[in-house]
Amino acid sequence: MRARVDETRANMPRRVAIVLAAALSLAGCGGSSGPSPSEFRAGFKADRAQFTRLGADIGAAITSAAKQSNAALASEFGHLAARTSRQQAQLRRLRSPAGYRARLRSAISELGRVATDLTAISAAAGSGNAATAKSSAAQLVRDSLAFQSTERSLTQGLGLAASA
Asked: Where are the alpha helices (DSSP H) in 94-129?
């Protein structure tokens, strides 16, 4: 029995070394806090260019709404809602460092609300419900402003130039 205890003690440093090596190798595999700020900056910059164009298109659709038929409005706002949802999905795939996660989650959520508002406008136009279209448009403005504020915060935090 004594020989077995001595043998176990003799192997202890080797076992500890094996466990430490395994733990260190696992720590290097996916245990990081996310991509570097420069990687996130590059991904966000590319997405930002797309949602800047999307915002301009939404503004143009709102400006020209009075000149279009209900069917044309339903179609246009439906397409804008789909684009917004795709943009939201793209932002959702973007991995951020810990310091940007809360703002990115807010931007994703706010963009989802914008997509919901656009869908509501499309449905209201399709059914000829002017009151719902008007209230949905007012909500769209509020949700768009919230998104723009979060986007501006991310832009400034990442040191990107403000858009015109």
From this structure: 101-127
